[in-house]
Amino acid sequence: MPSPLGSSAARPIVVHDYALVGSTPEPPEELLGRGRLAAARDERWRNVHTIRVEARFSVKSHYQFNEHAPKAMKATKPALIAEWDVSPSAEEMLSLVDLEEFENTDLESLFESRKRSASPEDDDLDEPAYKRRKYDESSLRDVIPAPHILPSLPNLPIRQYNGPMNLRATPTPIPPHKLPLPPTSPYTRRSWVIPIRGVSPWRRFGLTTAQVLFDSSKTKPSKLPSPPAPDSNEITWTPSALRSLWAFLRDMRKKNQLGPIGLSYNVAATTGSGYSQEDYAYGQPQTVETSTAPSLAASMFEGAMRLHQIDHIKVYHDAMNSMGVRNVLYAWAYLPPDGGEKIRMLKGARFVLLDERSSGIIIL
Known about the structure:
The protein is an alpha+beta fold. It has six helices and eleven strands.
């Protein structure tokens, strides 16, 4: 790093000396010598900003220290302590006669034993601490092994799904779309969004939300995942269930029974992860509202997060197979590693179908 004084040691400089009031001032020669030495050797000195320097000064011959000058501390007066053996004042003296009469309180009810009926909530509170549900709030980037983007396999023929349809739910159109949906081109692509964690922008239309349980299986018994309940409409995932779902989707993509399938695992930014929302949202469209009046979408989406701000999986497919892909997702079941019954994780869930511009079409 070159010296800020240049090649000439006698180059003129300005030194500001901050000293306490009443202290003995140092000779100007010593101050100039110390300032010249600091400007020549200390890397924390820098040029004064151009817009802050008046025209009659030369920017290259003035330097300013990066750190602010220390603030002067105001002297505080110590609290006054009364002398020993001093009689209290009249204000400190209280008479029992002047106090209000004490009203007796019956405390027998505090010692009575009460019985209450057991409820599911009470059972959950009575469980040991290691059995209570604890949700994971850290980044889910490493829950599913990379790669997190799997495009459609090349040179695959267009194939329409002709299997059974077990899903009987009624779709909900997202404005301005209406049912029945118009026919699409064989080359139109759409995607189903499977929520992993967070609240999506289409929750007002009955879209399912999701949470992820903290993985404590290495030290303590872990809770099992659960499909959405009718009252909560929320999926409770575990890392094992997410990896099982991702493996199932990769196998579905490889078999090509539903035409070309693409997958993407989208991870939202979390506090302290070192990534910004823009880093995680690369390649995802941003909605910009140009009108000052509140639109129908803005009123419906109030309080919800954008799609790139939640953790989710996208299943890209041909538009002609949208209902077929949704039916396969409905039928998928998770088998716990330690055995037990299969869990229909996506039964009763309602997902959003997106077009090629990531705009919502229907909820099903």
